[in-house]
């Protein structure tokens, strides 16, 4: 019975796991020691843990490459160098995300309580109050934008993939590409100008924010749905046609169920794209300190605008305003995470059994 061993050139010995772990530990100790000395000497204002991690990774790559070049040869050393660079690039990419989540959680937990989710800012000055009105406004406006965007985006994608030919399809594709790059504040100005024509320049209401967000959401839904429909094998369509199934029924019963997992994921990504938008809602929805459940009447509060106003208009008790802003940001992150989790579950249960 033979054992699998690392393949190296003749005359060389592979690096053991112990050597690799020792090199990593030495790199961490040296890097953190350097930053600790700099912190004690006053060269830095506080200990830079991110910088220490990056320096440790670079030192580990260099040491592993040198040891591998001596022990395993140039080819294996080059392979380890490239692997280390790719891994380091991945970790560096994760650092801003980890830092963002960590900072938001630490600063948002002090007001993550029942009072925040059970009260609004009506007649509240300074400490106290909560973001219930903003949470309800965000859910209502985002839900309305989804109801507008998903049917339009889904039907547009079906037309482009299954029926679209000629200049009309080219025009739709062109305008979808243009809408993808529209700044969010332009969408808010569009919605404000549209409703100002009918209701006057002072109009502020929730449905206007939903229309503005739908302008940003529709191209994402169209693009993601279009790509998912293109991935459905043509053999499935041809088999349905061979059985005499009409084209519309083939789309409903064969194409859409096959691509439903990717479609749902794309819709959730588009919701995540718009749920944190601030500029359009500032223009057309405004801000309110009271509860407002009616999308078609008066101003409404939303979590992004609530975060902005709490941070930009701090009162005498500055920390109370900052705490509410951080907690609102944390709630937004949790909503996005919940949406992605729901998307995964829906994709799992609705996708064909052979693709699970």
UniProtKB/TrEMBL annotation:
PROSITE patterns: ABC_TM1 (PS50928). One of its GO terms (biological process) is phosphate ion transmembrane transport. The keyword Signal does not apply. Pfam families: BPD_transp_1. The chain crosses the membrane at residues 21-41, 47-68, 80-102, 141-161, 173-199, 205-222, 254-275, 325-346. CDD domains: TM_PBP2. Gene3D superfamilies: MetI-like. Keywords: Cell membrane, Membrane, Phosphate transport, Transmembrane, Transmembrane helix, Transport. GO terms for molecular function: phosphate transmembrane transporter activity. It is a multi-pass membrane protein. Residues 135-343 form the ABC transmembrane type-1 domain. One of its GO terms (cellular component) is plasma membrane. It is found in: Cell membrane. PANTHER family: PHOSPHATE TRANSPORT SYSTEM PERMEASE PROTEIN PSTA. Belongs to the binding-protein-dependent transport system permease family. CysTW subfamily. Part of the binding-protein-dependent transport system for phosphate; probably responsible for the translocation of the substrate across the membrane. This is Phosphate transport system permease protein PstA. It comes from Alpinimonas psychrophila.
